[in-house]
Specification:
This protein is α/β, with parallel strands linked by helices. The protein folds into 2 domains: 4-139 and 315-343, Quinone Oxidoreductase, Chain A, domain 1; 143-287, Rossmann fold, CATH 3.40.50. It is 25% helix and 24% strand. The protein has helices spanning 56-59, 143-156, 172-183, 195-203, 217-223, 236-245, 287-307, 324-333, and strands spanning 4-5, 8-11, 25-28, 32-33, 44-52, 80-81, 83-90, 100-103, 109-110, 114-117, 124-125, 163-166, 187-192, 208-211, 227-232, 246-254, 281-284, 315-318, 339-343. GO terms for molecular function: oxidoreductase activity, acting on the CH-CH group of donors, NAD or NADP as acceptor. Pfam families: ADH_N_2, ADH_zinc_N. Keywords: Oxidoreductase. Residues 29-342 form the Enoyl reductase (ER) domain.
């Protein structure tokens, strides 16, 4: 077979502020690969189909630091997240040609059209169900969905009638949290940054969806009488408002703090002392630590909920790896319309 282009999205430079396409990231089409003859050395060759774009990517665009919770990218090498691909060739007995695989554990799937992998334990062989597109497996059936499901099951201890506030409620994590909370009989307040996203949150069941750019978060929470559970995707001043409105014994699930990378780099949370008199329980959520406990349950339960139409989801498909830098910037600035995935290749 004639060698083909192995396009890659490279980490090009440490960003000064938001990662600008062409500066922090750069598409490279100079590498070629012959899928029929490239040495595998006991590994397996994957043709990438879809890649996920998640906010944690920017947290890895920094110099390497010993002991850091996220491994930093290497300048000149592909950025990484989660992906789904089809195996073209394999010399590993655990993976066979034709398998569709999801990986890599920890979000280390390289942004490249072709990937040679060696460790089969870092991948899950997928069973496609109900004609779902492979992009679903990096969204609601991938890390974002796992984060929502595992975190809600582990930390919410929700009771019927609890008031739940979800920030970033239109995103892939927040939108599933909204629906899980409604299934548990909770009242849900949810915020997002556009009217289109507010409409989506209302569609999936949020009782009080609002646009935080046009309405004051603290005023909304005060009007609704306080919150029992806060699912935090943004941190910053939104976390501050949630602390002020928390009821005695409220539970805070700290899933993300995207404001630390975008509009509110200093955090903006000046009332952490509130945790003490209100006896707030605050848990940090690292999905990789919960996956061993919930993984099989997650795939069984959430797959069935999607198939039955009881769970809805949205996605925004970017048609080319070359647009990966622009897709990341959209996610970080909130101009995306739904969960962002890159379609690298057709089946």
């Amino acid at each position: 077979m004639t060698p083909v282009t192995n396009g890659r999205l490279l980490f090009n430079a440490y960003p000064d502020g938001l990662p600008q396409p062409g500066k922090a990231t750069r598409y490279d089409g100079s590498q070629t690969i012959d899928p029929d003859t490239v040495p595998l050395n006991g590994g397996f060759l994957i043709k990438t189909l879809v890649l996920s774009i998640d906010p944690f990517i920017v947290a890895k665009m920094r110099p390497k630091t010993p002991g850091a919770s996220l491994l930093a990218y290497t300048i000149g090498e592909p950025i990484e997240d989660y992906g789904v691909g089809v195996v073209l060739r394999s010399e590993n007995p655990a993976i066979k040609a034709g398998d569709h695989v999801y990986g890599v554990q920890g979000g280390a799937y390289p942004f490249a059209e072709y990937v040679i992998a060696n460790d089969a334990t870092q991948y899950r062989v997928l069973e496609k169900k109900d004609k779902l597109h492979w992009s679903v497996y990096v969204g609601i059936l991938g890390m974002p969905g796992q984060t929502a499901y595992c975190g809600w099951k582990e930390f919410s201890k929700a009771k019927k009638g609890d008031v739940v506030f979800v920030s970033g409620g239109a995103g892939p994590v927040g939108s599933l949290v909204i629906q899980l909370a409604k299934m548990d009989g909770c009242k849900v307040i949810a915020s997002a940054g556009s009217n289109e996203k507010v409409a989506f949150m209302k569609k999936i069941g949020a009782d009080v969806p609002f646009n935080y750019k046009t309405e004051n978060t603290a005023d909304i929470l005060k009007k609704e009488g306080g919150i029992d559970i806060y699912w935090d995707n943004v941190g910053g001043t939104t976390l501050e408002a949630a602390l002020d409105s928390a009821k005695l014994g409220a539970k805070f699930i700290e899933c993300g703090m995207i404001s630390a990378f975008t509009s509110d780099p200093l955090g903006g949370t000046r009332n952490l002392f509130t945790i003490i008199p209100k006896q707030i329980t605050m848990n940090g959520l690292s999905v990789s630590l919960l996956i061993p406990k919930y993984e099989e349950e997650f795939y069984r339960v959430v797959s069935d909920l999607i198939a039955s139409g009881k769970i809805q989801y949205g996605e925004e498909v970017i048609p080319s790896l070359e647009l990966g830098g622009e897709a990341l910037l959209a996610v970080l600035t909130g101009t995306n319309k739904a969960k962002v995935v890159i379609e690298v290749a057709k089946e």
